[in-house]
Amino acid sequence: MGSYWMQYLDLSANMFSGNPPNLVQAPNLISLNISHNRFYGSLILSTSLSSLSGFDVACNSLVGSLPSWSNSYSLKFVNVSCGNLFSGSVPPFSSLSYNYLTTLDLSDQALTGTLSSILGQVLSEGSSGIGMTALLVGGNYFSGIIPNFLTWPQLERFNVSGNNLSGTIATVGSLPSNLWSIDVSNNNVVAGSIPIPYCSSGAAPQLQHYLLGGDAHSFTGSLPTTLSTTFPNLARFSLSGSFLTTMPYLWLAGSAAWKSLTTLSLRKCEFSGTFPTPLASTQITWLDFSRNQLNGTLPADLPSYAPLLVTLNFGENGFTGQLPANWSNLAHLEHLDAHSCLLNGTIPAALSATLQTLILYNNSFVSTTSLSNVSADSNHPTESLNWWSSLMNLRQLDISANKLTTLPLVTNTNFSKLSILNMSDNRITSTLPTSWGTSLSNISALNVSRNYFFGGVPEAWGEKLALLRVFDASSNNLNSSQASLLLSLRWNVQVLRLQHNNFTGVLNSILVLSPALTDVDISYNQLTGYLPLQLLSSAGSLNYLQLQGNAFEGDLPRLWGQGNLSSLKLLNLSLNSLSGPIPVSWGTFLQRGNLSTDLCNNNICGPVPKQLRSFQTVVGGWFHRCGGAPKKRHRMLLLHKRSHQHSHFLQALQDTHGSVNDTLHSAQCLH
């Protein structure tokens, strides 16, 4: 499709699908609007678009590069947001286009470059002749400094959030009279004092969004007590930095406080004090006081003055006492994060049924179970009157690093939507319930590590937990002989961590790792026998294999060096009883620069494969020759690096390539 004389093309708000129209033969386009369709693929446009004024491709599924508009002198409107994923650098705008450009929306793409090179000198440094009303480039990879946007007199919206920008916000000149939204949150390093632009009338009632927060931000200085009266109608406000002062209660409570707030984040400000109560605004839906130095108890009357709360985060503070039972009246609450405080006692018997995410790790919560209410099945002590039954909509639950001793009373109804469950680092003594194969049917990540579980992993889980991708049962007392079953093709997990248990027996000689596995750790158990010859024959996705600290014996399987192991990053077979030479077939894959291999503390002997004799990035070790050779020691090169441990369980869910849990031993391999 295309026409040399075509000037206007508007296909917006239909249900067209497939590739977008080919407009390579349409150099005279003035306006292109194909927004709100189902187009996918790349745009094909003319390289000469000197007359282009409007460009709207929003709300599709387009990818690839943006068209060149460097010669589009009268470009006014650009919108590529909503569903698309353009990548690469953004073509610079014409030096003359700042007279015309009013809207630039590149939100939530994968675009790179510096804003100054994209916008040009005039837009970056500011000028009274700029007609820009909306610059929306959040959610990309832009770097550089924040432009001097407060000098753009027509500006209404400014959003550069979620990039890699740095610097300060200049407050030269007065606040543009129509500017109602400023968002510089979550960038690289945004510093300085809290910017308060000059307002000719003393206040700027038009400003509704003022978002300055971000974990890398470092605002400092004194807190302006008049901030809530200078911007009295703020609906969304965020701030991060280092203030080392008390919580700014004047902003939040009292006659001069913000009364229209719906979103408030004072995360990582180093504020001291107590939980502010009551808040002047009853419209708040998002409240984040996390990573401060707040203390005291939590307000039981929170539902009375924040009845619309959807998200509440106050983790990493010094709050003490219990979670208030009255918080069950927060009828809209979906996300509650209270991790890493000093909370204790039992979790309330009822919590909001609307909860989807509950994060309580690293506190001192205890179970309610006493000897009189342990269930009839002594292998599964469960809570008799518990809060679990009310959480019908829960998707993520993290109760790790507490003092819990009993399992949740899980039924087919109360946890049917649960996707992520972490109960590691507690004191639970139990077998793993077979019933979870049915009641946790949607589970994708399950962590029960560092408890006192015993027995085996129920065989039914391998078939019924079809969505399970990350399973960590390390550092327990599991003691069955079912390791072969867990590693087999029937098991669909990607990350399997069973290290530091008491698994026994011999791996099935015909065992083949599931092709889905990316990270396997069954180190420090009591496994014996030979390593299965075909173990890695289907392991094309495997990144990490850790078998150290067992009692494997025999030769290194030569077939392991013949498979497709291009993704393998770590192979640890140390601290076993393996013997014989390194197979010649291993030479090629062992010399890969991105592979760490540890064979220390075995009885490996014999000549070095020739591919390794000149390898440089290694640690030396001594190995005996095989039988019949002189009793002379020969120097051998050994691939041996340290790996790093990811401490947080959710990292494995976000990157199923996983991480390495055990730091490799730094022994010098002397035998």
Helix-strand layout with pairing:
Elements: E1 8-10, E2 17-18, E3 31-33, E4 38-42, E5 54-56, E6 61-64, E7 77-79, E8 85-89, E9 103-105, E10 110-114, H1 115-125, E11 134-136, E12 141-145, E13 157-159, E14 164-167, E15 181-183, E16 189-192, E17 209-211, E18 218-219, H2 227-230, E19 236-238, H3 249-252, E20 263-265, E21 272-274, E22 286-288, E23 293-296, H4 302-305, E24 311-313, E25 318-321, E26 335-337, E27 342-346, E28 357-359, E29 364-366, E30 396-398, E31 420-422, H5 436-439, E32 445-447, E33 454-455, H6 461-464, E34 470-472, E35 477-478, H7 483-487, E36 495-497, E37 504-506, E38 519-521, E39 526-530, E40 544-546, E41 551-554, E42 570-572, E43 577-580, H8 587-590, E44 596-598, E45 603-604, E46 619-623, E47 634-638, H9 649-654
Parallel strand pairs: 1-3, 2-4, 3-5, 4-6, 5-7, 6-8, 7-9, 8-10, 9-11, 10-12, 11-13, 12-14, 13-15, 14-16, 15-17, 16-18, 17-19, 19-20, 20-22, 21-23, 22-24, 23-25, 24-26, 25-27, 26-28, 27-29, 28-30, 30-31, 31-32, 32-34, 33-35, 34-36, 36-38, 37-39, 38-40, 39-41, 40-42, 41-43, 42-44, 43-45
Antiparallel strand pairs: 46-47
Describe the structure.
This protein is 7% helix and 24% strand. The chain has 671 residues and is mostly beta strands. It folds into three domains: 1-167, Ribonuclease Inhibitor (Leucine-rich repeat, LRR (right-handed beta-alpha superhelix)); 297-468, Ribonuclease Inhibitor (Leucine-rich repeat, LRR (right-handed beta-alpha superhelix), Alpha-Beta Horseshoe), CATH 3.80.10.10; 481-671, Alpha-Beta Horseshoe (Leucine-rich repeat, LRR (right-handed beta-alpha superhelix)). The protein has a 24-stranded parallel sheet. Strands 2-4-6-8-10-12-14-16-18 form a nine-stranded parallel sheet. It has a five-stranded parallel sheet with strand order 21-23-25-27-29, with no helix packed on it. The N and C termini lie far apart (74 Å). Residues 370-379 and 616-671 have low confidence and may be disordered.
